[in-house]
Design goal:
The complex is a heterodimer. Helices cover about 70% and strands about 0% of the residues of chain A. Chain A is an all-alpha fold. In chain A, the strands form two sheets. Chain A has a two-stranded antiparallel ribbon with strand order 1-4. In chain A, strands 2-3 form a two-stranded antiparallel sheet. In chain A, a hairpin with a 2-residue loop joins strand 2 (about 165) and strand 3. The radius of gyration of chain A is 21 Å and the shape is globular. The two termini of chain A are about 10 Å apart. By secondary structure, chain B is α/β, with parallel strands linked by helices. Chain B has 17 helices and 22 strands. In chain B, the strands form five sheets. In chain B, strands 6-9-10-3-11-12 form a six-stranded mixed sheet, with helices on both faces. In chain B, strands 18-19-20-15-21-22 form a six-stranded mixed sheet, sandwiched between helices. In chain B, a hairpin with a 2-residue loop joins strand 7 and strand 8. The longest helix of chain B has 22 residues, at about 490-510. Chain B is globular, with a radius of gyration of 24 Å. Chains A and B meet through helix 7, helix 8 and helix 9 of A and strand 2, helix 1, helix 10, helix 11 and helix 14 of B.
Chain lengths: ~325, ~525
């Protein structure tokens, strides 16, 4: 029967629709950039772009970790808390120790917190949403207890190099962000581990029966998310040369937004780092454009909210269409 | 058997139905007539056009040309609501029961009678009772649907169709997940519906069931009607021949193993797990061991326990002559050379929106080269060898697994198993819902694999198949191996032993209680 089965009956229209679904987000970014450049040509100025890069590096780096978690079918609400913990840790240690030591300890703390998330989700089998909501509270609480809600100011020039240093105008933090995205994107797309992330998100039971250590893969994604939040926290501490608990309570929403707007599916199994990069670019362009055009901050939130909803509606529109038109006929079972 | 039917009113009349998809003709000039009180069988390989035909009748898809009439009413096509209003109901293989709701709520789903805005409980119970009488069912209205057996859930679905006044019921693979007893019960229900003037379209790969219950059988091949005859004029062989295009298959089954050489490849002792109790089992290299048993006999649990997929309470395992600790995960089992092809291909075996080659590589993405990036191109080249062995066309290695037929999906999983160095393959229901051509290929491949000195333990609800394609048959009931039959045993023996064991086990629990 396989001999007579056609190799493809997919119409060009369907292929076009799929291509739009996959790459439409790139077009959206191009349109947005074009619109804002026309309204305010200063947007494309080298200095402005470099500032955006440095400003958005923490969110973008956390977005990398979140992308891993979301592709496994999970969710990480605790990245904001881990980010604050690591920023405070870096600043507290950085007052007396060398920046390298402070940063390393802080990033390790983030990874350990992430691994703890992984354990709660895979070992204790708590729903990821609830698990990371819980650990988020625990981590924030621990940070407050340890610091007594005090800010730490680092008065040591080398501490600020990572966050504020530049080479030919390009911020180090932006370089680090790009490097991490390239590495993380490569790992996800081209290594057995990365493909296992997709496998677990696509069908956890099939992956387990096929011999994938699903708990380890899922757990690792949370550890990576924690690690990324740690790096982001360190960058912020270095940028501000200080840190305090509750640095940015809304950060977790920005991180989720860049991942979702990029088109990584919340149901798991689908997504990519380049998508998150596009998501960051869209959000950053928008926010910077608003500032350049003097749009009220209150309106900014409204528009961001609309964009998140619009992005999800685009990504998943076929789910609404499918049941009415019948399931798409498969290629062989006609 | 079918006397009298020809005088009854025509329920469904399909004339010159044609449907094409880009590059393929799904239906070509299909005509058929179903009368009230008739059970109309529709058989054909996967891809023969059965699904398209059913979907066209139910209005899920629109035909290119041709007409569909229901009780004389011309249906425009492509309008599911109108088709439903005209009296068509479809019972899918995957049931649409809401497990959390009561039997009554499931039967009257979406159309509970109401009075003054409140549910009219009395009217609802009356409607439920009417539908229950039609199918001869005595499940209480308040029973939670999820706790009922698959067979009973299927009856609920039939009741739902009847309660909403549907008179033409199309059933897609109704016996696929039923044991022999339940099939008999379903067929009794169908005969009852005949007598009340309902028309049934019975679509199935289960040829024995089709021949038993249908009045008329039509064979489809490549979108065309090959032949329509009264069921009494068909034989199993004749049906297969018509489905495959005139080539009658060798019905002899899998050839026996050449020589079974000890020592055992695998020895299991004192295996206990929830619902499983196996005192001792030796598996020899080169043999195909079939697990036969009724639905719920514990075949799946047994295979899953051996594959490390479910936790066990106790058990000792020898691989070759070395005692090994019992695998606690499928990964550990794979390392011992034991690997499982799970019962539910789609839910447990494949990642449907990923390419076929990727699915072959699932769990061993590093196989294409430890230091090289994993690329689809490389996966396709790598998967070619294993997929060619199982008769999977290499052209389709780039296609997503979800777009394949059941037979091809099963071949993909088989290719995954044989692409690793394993010695014992556990195949749970490898032939469920797949067409005869693919089945034969799978049986041939499993024999070849076994002949290389590996062992195969497999199960099927189709006892005839188990008997014809195994070197040794283990009759399973209540999670135990209750009897062992040699090659060539009859289905009758297997059934007798399983029924006897099942009744004994029930008796035992009664006494214990």
């Amino acid at each position: 029967m396989t001999m007579t089965a056609p190799t493809s009956i997919e119409s060009t229209g369907l292929r076009a629709a799929r291509a739009f679904r996959s790459y439409g987000i790139v077009g959206a970014l191009a349109l947005l950039v074009a619109a804002i450049t026309i309204a305010q040509p200063g947007f494309l100025a080298y200095g402005n772009l470099m500032n955006i890069l440095s400003q958005w590096a923490p969110v973008a780096i956390m977005g990398i970790g979140m992308t891993y978690v979301v592709i496994t079918g999970g969710f990480d609400l605790s990245v904001g808390a881990i980010y604050s913990l690591c920023a405070v840790t870096a600043a507290a240690i950085g007052r007396t120790e060398a920046p390298v030591v402070a940063f390393t300890v802080a990033i390790l703390a983030g990874m350990i917190a992430g691994a703890a998330n992984g354990f709660v989700v895979t070992g204790l089998r708590v729903n990821p949403f609830i698990a990371t909501l819980g650990t988020s509270l625990i981590i924030s609480g621990v940070t407050l207890v340890l610091t007594g809600n005090a800010a730490f100011v680092v008065d040591f020039e080398p501490f600020t190099v990572l966050g504020s240093g530049r080479l030919l105008g390009v911020p180090y933090s932006g370089m680090l962000m790009v490097a991490l995205m390239i590495v993380a994107g490569f790992v996800l797309s081209y290594t057995p581990f990365g493909q296992s992330i997709y496998a677990v998100g696509g069908n956890a039971e099939a992956s387990r029966l096929a011999g994938i250590r699903t708990s380890l893969v899922t757990g690792s994604s949370y550890a990576i998310s924690g690690l990324a939040a740690g790096i982001a926290g360190v960058i912020t501490a270095s940028q501000l040369s200080s840190a305090q608990p509750n640095l940015n309570p809304n950060l977790v929403f920005d991180v989720l937004t860049v991942v979702i707007v990029g088109g990584t599916s919340l149901t798991g199994g689908r997504g990519a780092i380049w998508r998150t990069a596009i998501g960051v670019a869209i959000l950053a362009t928008l926010q910077n454009g608003f500032n350049l055009l003097d749009v009220d901050a209150y309106y900014q939130n409204i528009i961001k909210g609309v964009i998140i909803i619009a992005a999800l509606a685009t990504v998943d529109w076929h789910r609404f269409v499918r049941p009415r038109s019948g399931r798409r006929p498969s290629t062989t079972d006609l | 058997m079918s006397t009298g039917i020809h005088e009854t009113a025509v329920a469904l009349s399909v004339r010159a139905l044609t449907k094409t998809y880009p590059g393929v003709i799904a239906l070509s000039d299909v005509s058929l007539t179903v009368r009230e009180g008739e059970v109309y069988g529709l058989v054909g390989e996967n891809g023969a056009g059965k699904s398209t035909l059913m979907k066209t009748i139910t209005g899920a898809i629109q035909q290119d040309s041709g007409s569909i009439e229901l009780w004389g009413e011309d249906l425009p096509g492509g309008d599911p609501h109108r088709a439903a209003a005209a009296g068509v109901a479809m019972i899918y293989q995957e049931l649409t029961i809401v497990p959390e709701m009561s039997a009554l709520a499931n039967v009257l789903l979406g159309r509970l009678p109401s009075r003054l805005g409140f549910i009219d409980r009395r009217a609802a119970r009356r409607e439920y009772a009417n539908a229950a009488r039609l199918v001869g069912m005595n499940v209480p209205a308040s029973a939670q649907a999820g706790t009922l057996s698959t067979a009973t859930q299927q009856l609920l679905e039939i009741m739902r169709a009847l309660a909403s006044g549907r008179r033409l019921v199309i059933m897609d693979e109704p016996t696929a997940s039923l044991g022999p007893e339940d099939i008999q019960r379903l067929h009794d229900v169908i005969r009852g519906l005949k007598s009340t003037g309902h028309a049934i379209v019975y679509v199935s790969h289960d040829l024995e069931a089709v021949l038993e219950v249908c009045d008329t059988v039509t064979v489809l091949r490549e979108g065309r009607v090959v032949e329509t005859r009264s069921a009494a004029d068909w034989t199993r062989r004749g049906l297969i021949g018509a489905m495959l295009g005139g080539i009658a298959l060798d019905a002899a089954g899998t050839p026996p193993a050449q020589a079974l050489l000890g020592p055992p490849l695998l020895r299991i002792e004192g295996l206990r797990a929830p619902g499983v109790d196996v005192s001792r089992l030796d598996i020899l290299p080169g043999e195909i061991v079939g697990l036969a048993g009724l639905v719920g006999s514990g075949r799946t649990r047994m295979l899953r326990a051996i594959a490390g997929a479910d936790p066990i309470e106790a058990g000792t395992l020898w691989v070759g002559d070395a005692q090994r600790s019992w695998p606690r995960t499928p990964r550990q089992a794979v390392r011992l050379g034991i690997v499982l092809a799970p019962e539910d291909r789609k839910a447990q075996g494949l990642v449907l929106d990923r390419p076929s080659a990727w699915n072959v590589a699932l769990g061993q993405f590093g196989a294409t080269g430890r230091r090289k990036p994993v690329l689809l191109k490389r996966l396709i080249a790598w998967a070619r060898r294993a997929t060619e062995r199982v008769g999977f066309s290499s052209d389709r290695l780039g296609a997503n697994a979800g777009t394949l037929s059941g037979g091809n999906q099963q071949k993909l999983i088989l290719a995954r198993l044989i692409s690793r160095p394993v010695s014992c393959l556990l195949l749970d229901e490898p032939t469920r819902g797949i067409d005869i051509g693919a089945k034969e290929q799978i049986f041939n491949v499993t024999r070849q694999i076994a002949a290389e000195g590996r062992a195969i333990i497999w199960s099927s609800s189709d006892l005839d198949e188990v008997v014809r394609h195994s070197d040794r048959i283990l009759v399973v009931a209540g999670g135990r191996v209750v009897a062992e039959l040699p090659r060539g045993a009859s289905v009758h023996d297997v059934l007798e032993l399983s029924f006897a064991a099942t009744t004994a086990a029930e008796h035992e629990t009664e006494v214990a209680a």
